Amino acid sequence: MSFRTTDVDYIEDVSPGSGALPPRAWYASSDATSLSLNGSWRLRVSPTADAEDDSFAEEGYDAGDWAEVTVPGHWVLQGDGAFGKPVYTNHLYPFPVDPPHVPTENPTGDHLRVFDLPDDWPALDEGGAVLRFDGVESCARVWLNGTDIGEFKGSRLAHEFAVGHLLKPSGNVLAVRVHQWSAGSYLEDQDQWWLPGIFRDVTLLHRPAGGVLDFFVHADYDHVTGEGTLRVDSDVDGRVLVPALDIDVATGAPVTVPVEPWSAETPKLYDGELVTEGERVPLRIGFRTVVLEDGLIKVNGRPILFKGVNRHEWHPRTGRALDLATMREDVLLMKRHNLNAVRTSHYPPHPAFLDLCDEYGLWVIDECDLETHGFTEQDWRDNPVDDDRWTPALLDRAARMVERDKNHPSIVFWSLGNEAGTGRGLTAMAEWIHSRDTSRLVHYEGDWNCRDTDVYSRMYASHAEVEAIGKELDGGTLKRRGLPFIQCEYGHAMGNGPGGIADYQELFEKYDRIQGGFIWEWIDHGIEHAELGYAYGGDFGEELHDGNFVCDGLIFPDRTPSPGLAEYKKVIEPVRIEGDGADGTVRVTNRYDFADLSALAFVWSYQVDGATVESGSLSVPALKPGESADVKLPEPPAHQGPAETGWTVRATLAADTAWGERGHEVAWGQFPGAVRVLPSVAATDGPVRDGRTITLGPAAFDARTGTLTSIGGVSVEGLRLDVWRAPTDNDEGTDWVSGVQYSVLWRTLGLHRMRHRLDAVELTDDTLTVRTRVAPAAREVGLATVYRWTSDGSRLKLTVSVAPEGEWKVPLPRLGVRLGLAEAEAVTWFGGGPGEAYPDTRAASRIGLWTSTVDDLQTPYLRPQENGARGDVRWARLGGLRIEGDPEFAFSARRWTNEQLEAASHLTDLKAGDTVWVNLDHGQNGVGSQSCGPGPLPRHQLTAAPAEFSFVFSTDK
Ligand code: IPT
């Protein structure tokens, strides 16, 4: 054996590698032994690929002074920065683009692990053994007991090596050299952190003589006959057993029997076994048939509607090294929030995740580990997917995905990859996949002509464009015109948002051709950080980075659902509950694709001024998909005096399911009964001036400025018009349709530095009037703002009138008043809750009586920004005040000013001050999705227009 080579040519070789076994299905044997090599490994990180020779792979090498690293893991997320740091870029390659060359500075982690075979390991001459790597970023070379067994690329794909002949009972030395950068990096330009390491399992599998090699479960469902046809093709002949179906057939032989089909809604799996001479392998069989028919994606004979999300693998401490509990948490959260589909953006996930999708029921678009997005910077010149030299690598990636994952019923589409432009390599992949697996469809977004795909897929198309596509007015190639449409990415969930998803869902449901979409994305990729809370791009000193664009998920890094997930859950709920309090009926519609409503229990409740006074169960027929029924509500309960009344009808799980407990809410609807009694304050008191003070009812004002200073002993600071909000990530983005970037327009106009000119303080018998003009320096536009104060002696009413002056060309961020309170903790309100609501993110907000605290009202978006406003508020109580609005208003309260919120870059920058700042908003601009996509629809924009709104203040006794 010869050592001490520093041959590193393989790193820049465009070929997929050498030495690995052909790809095959990923399965866990019932009886063959395996040994997990996860755990603590020795690690040495070098700055270049050739800094160290490979003598560390020799038996007897003393690595006693090396560091330790946990496998699976990324070395840059361990050792507190001692081994290097994470780098985040969206689509820019963090190295010069000169394929297939990579930088000399190529962090290289030598990993070493010595292991003994367990006592129960079969004798070394009985069968063989396979060493499996489930994921290594980005290129690895492997030695076992001093023998070089090969090298590979394809970070999120499995690679196996035959090693039986090299094993010994004890003292086996496994050496793995991992390079951060390789030719493979050019194919892995996904929008995520660059995180080198052995980040998925390493396993030694015993392979018994006569054991199973590869097999392909074909399990179709005929929706006309109700029968399933099973055929298991196996490299090694054997038998296929499915006891529940009385199946006992030879491999390769088809058998047709009546079955219950598999769907995301009814994930019926049959346990089976593949038995060869030397091994038994468990099978989990789901019968379903996926076809493209009548221009639609149909499963088991019915068109389906994707209510999906894009999922990157992420954990705030371990990056893309996920344990089973975390994967399960993702799936449970998805199921509990009514999602029915996942696109595994942008690589095949850990295989255990797909098992969970089979088990709990989620449609999956399994995406190949391929993205060359950075080539867009050079108009796609030299794009590897259009260069034959790279085609073997692309085909290798396609095969490693399909072969590994082909036995999962949840997978309905193979996706070629993401953002890789177009090219012959992609076509070759599609052709190979189509020929290898005729039971699924092929997806790829980057080719709008749909040359290689079975679906027209786009990302972030505007509502108008989606509607045009729905109406088949979008043109395109003949092939495309015949295809169904999905949005593989939409609703960019960065920071506060995404806005407008309810408007999208209406279109998805209205047009058959549109078969739903996938929100971008599931989770914020924040990295836990001692000083910053969660770090994002730039926090590790990267010379090139894309900031917090990596934090754009429906859940926060700790997996707490964001308001965006609550909104999505409501928007995609599988039961529509609409009613009319006047005629005493509720209309229930089943919007599932397969399930009837028998799993749900319905509950009505009746609210008087927001408080539930009575509730009961409602009997709803087990409607079939698409069916509706009008169900009679009981007589409304009696109540005293005038009050606003309303009905809430909820659909909950009737019994525990695999993913949710009995009583878990799936859908709800609210509809009004008696309308709200608006506050009226008779102006029976009048303002009285006494030196520097004006008093009016319970309130005191500064006589010179007309500024409110207290109400009934509660001090109030700085009450005045407010039009500014701390720009959201969406406000900072550019509307893909109009090119508008709100934060820039707003700042250019000066809306963040409005000046308040005092024009008059006028006292009449019953009114204190303060006239002002609110305008930014250097501009002619302004808002003539008049505050009118009246009182009945105990309550204080403020009416604000706003008249725009000059030519306003931009919507306002917000319109309302703000004020400071010395103390506030508990908050109660009658209005929309429990979470935040903005004009285009208010579907999940329901009318009720809510309580919270100032601290809990905050939504912890990783980059601080406007958040936490509660909408449709009739009245709110906090800091000793009761504030009632006419009309309804939105409010937020925080322990910092909006200016401090805006200045912060991480949550840890926000320091509570002595004052609680409260915004009472007449309106806010919609949120939109223009951090990547379209802005708020015109109907959700806050146009500068004459407005009048009022608040009644009283002290809270
Ligand atoms: C799109 C990418 O596919 C996705 O990975 C992510 O980067 C997303 O944008 C933004 O967060 S690509 C973009 C050009 C729309």
TrEMBL record:
<dbReference type="InterPro" id="IPR023230">
    <property type="entry name" value="Glyco_hydro_2_CS"/>
</dbReference>
<dbReference type="InterPro" id="IPR014718">
    <property type="entry name" value="GH-type_carb-bd"/>
</dbReference>
<dbReference type="Pfam" id="PF02929">
    <property type="entry name" value="Bgal_small_N"/>
</dbReference>
<dbReference type="InterPro" id="IPR023232">
    <property type="entry name" value="Glyco_hydro_2_AS"/>
</dbReference>
<protein>
    <recommendedName>
        <fullName>Beta-galactosidase</fullName>
        <ecNumber>3.2.1.23</ecNumber>
    </recommendedName>
</protein>
<dbReference type="GO" id="GO:0009341">
    <property type="term" value="C:beta-galactosidase complex"/>
</dbReference>
<feature type="domain" description="Beta galactosidase small chain/">
    <location>
        <begin position="695"/>
        <end position="954"/>
    </location>
</feature>
<dbReference type="GO" id="GO:0005990">
    <property type="term" value="P:lactose catabolic process"/>
</dbReference>
<comment type="similarity">
    <text>Belongs to the glycosyl hydrolase 2 family.</text>
</comment>
<dbReference type="InterPro" id="IPR004199">
    <property type="entry name" value="B-gal_small/dom_5"/>
</dbReference>
<dbReference type="InterPro" id="IPR036156">
    <property type="entry name" value="Beta-gal/glucu_dom_sf"/>
</dbReference>
<dbReference type="InterPro" id="IPR050347">
    <property type="entry name" value="Bact_Beta-galactosidase"/>
</dbReference>
<dbReference type="InterPro" id="IPR006103">
    <property type="entry name" value="Glyco_hydro_2_cat"/>
</dbReference>
<dbReference type="Pfam" id="PF02837">
    <property type="entry name" value="Glyco_hydro_2_N"/>
</dbReference>
<dbReference type="InterPro" id="IPR032312">
    <property type="entry name" value="LacZ_4"/>
</dbReference>
<dbReference type="InterPro" id="IPR017853">
    <property type="entry name" value="GH"/>
</dbReference>
<dbReference type="Pfam" id="PF16353">
    <property type="entry name" value="LacZ_4"/>
</dbReference>
<dbReference type="InterPro" id="IPR013783">
    <property type="entry name" value="Ig-like_fold"/>
</dbReference>
<keyword id="KW-0326">Glycosidase</keyword>
<dbReference type="InterPro" id="IPR006101">
    <property type="entry name" value="Glyco_hydro_2"/>
</dbReference>
<dbReference type="GO" id="GO:0030246">
    <property type="term" value="F:carbohydrate binding"/>
</dbReference>
<keyword id="KW-0378">Hydrolase</keyword>
<dbReference type="InterPro" id="IPR006104">
    <property type="entry name" value="Glyco_hydro_2_N"/>
</dbReference>
<dbReference type="InterPro" id="IPR011013">
    <property type="entry name" value="Gal_mutarotase_sf_dom"/>
</dbReference>
<dbReference type="InterPro" id="IPR008979">
    <property type="entry name" value="Galactose-bd-like_sf"/>
</dbReference>
<dbReference type="GO" id="GO:0004565">
    <property type="term" value="F:beta-galactosidase activity"/>
</dbReference>
<dbReference type="Pfam" id="PF02836">
    <property type="entry name" value="Glyco_hydro_2_C"/>
</dbReference>
